[in-house]
Amino acid sequence: MDGRHLKVTYAELFKATNGFSSANLIGTGSYGSVYEGILSRHENIVAVKVLNLHLRGASKSFIAECNAFRNIRHRNFVKIITSCSSIDFGGNDFKALVLEFMPNGSLEKWLHSKLDGQHQLGSLNFIKRLNIAIDIASALDYLHHHCHTPIAHCDLKPINIFLDEDMNAHVGDFRHPVYSQ
Predict the structure, then answer these.
(1) What phi and psi, each to the nearest 5 degrees, are found at residue 50?
(2) Mind listing the pLDDT tens digit for each residue in 46-60?
(3) Sign of the CA dihedral 14, 90, 61, 105?
(4) What is the pLDDT of residues 122-170, one digit of tens each?
(5) What is the set of active-site residues?
(6) By the 8 A CB rule, do 25 and 51 touch?
(7) How far apart are CA 176 and CA 157, in angstroms?
(8) Fewest Cβ atoms nearer than 10 Å: which of 1, 14, 48, 145?
(9) Burial class, 47, CB count within 10 angstroms (exposed 0-12 / middle 13-18 / buried 19+)
(10) Burial of 41 (0-12, 13-18, 19+ CB in 10 A)
(11) 106: which strand partners?
């Protein structure tokens, strides 16, 4: 993507995810679901985190994640591409985050799954595990010591650590950040 703020509509996200199809569902969480999608303007694979606004706290979670991601500039965080706050085809409020896609999924999947058809999951050797731990430590050091306002993640666990194509770890899911002075 070219560095300008990308604006996306509900219709574009609907199309990118084949109508938020269950075939494109890559995860669910406390406040919504994450879908794999392709933004047709750029042909980029993205992760679209759609919030379930019927759940208490979902709107607050959306704002917290937007605020946290807005100022984070570090290689070991999932990058937010853009956000969408709109109205869906039924006239309901719609909020979503468009995030960098992590092709190797969550660390949780690698630590606790069996076979996924392509490779043996849960088979992270010592060096891979050490590198992932270093990536996570680097991300936390950045949050605690190098952000303009220090941030505590508050929900760090394997399901919120994502792995890119090179198995580099990226911290995500900032639903409940705590800003300290």
Answers:
(1) -100, 125
(2) 999 998 888 887 888
(3) negative
(4) 578 999 999 999 999 999 999 888 887 777 777 789 989 999 999 999 9
(5) 155
(6) no
(7) 13
(8) 145
(9) buried
(10) exposed
(11) 162
